[in-house]
């Protein structure tokens, strides 16, 4: 296979991934470039998403399997805000006491302490992978 063919294949995969990301944004004028995908851009090269599915299921499966959309979004907000309860409450449109309850419930469901930095890293990665798999139409 020529170098040109390999490069075209890679660029096509990147273009398709970017188009899917742009569609996910819901904006008509959205444009996503491959270099904007950041650390997750390596995923566009995968032919078999099964290991990614497995990782997401291992980390979040118990939460995703319980119709836990509110809990999942609370977890996402927790991870993105470094656990700042007031910001989580604002993002999720709930009271801070509800945030505390949900976080305790998430830790209970996942059987993992959210105070552990390694756990937070693994969960953050799993949430990001879940988003990428969904965008790329490989719904976990």
Automatic annotation (TrEMBL):
Coiled-coil boundaries: none
Top-rank taxon: Bacteria
PucR C-terminal helix-turn-helix domain boundaries: 71-128
InterPro entries found in the cross-reference section: CdaR-like_regulators (IPR051448), PucR_C-HTH_dom (IPR025736), PucR_C-HTH_sf (IPR042070)
A Pfam family assignment: HTH_30
Protein name per UniProt: PucR-like helix-turn-helix protein
């Amino acid at each position: 296979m020529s170098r040109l063919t390999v490069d075209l294949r890679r660029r096509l995969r990147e273009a398709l991934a970017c188009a899917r990301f742009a569609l996910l944004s819901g904006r008509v004028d959205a444009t996503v470039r491959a270099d904007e995908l950041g650390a997750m851009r390596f995923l566009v090269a995968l032919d078999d998403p099964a290991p990614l599915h497995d990782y997401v299921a291992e980390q979040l499966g118990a939460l995703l399997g319980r119709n836990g959309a509110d809990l999942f979004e609370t977890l996402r907000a927790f991870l993105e805000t470094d656990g700042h309860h007031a910001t989580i409450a604002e993002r999720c449109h709930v009271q801070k006491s509800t945030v505390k309850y949900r976080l305790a419930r998430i830790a209970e469901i996942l059987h993992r302490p959210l105070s552990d930095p390694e756990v937070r890293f693994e969960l953050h990665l799993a949430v990001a992978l879940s988003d990428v798999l969904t965008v790329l139409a490989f719904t976990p």
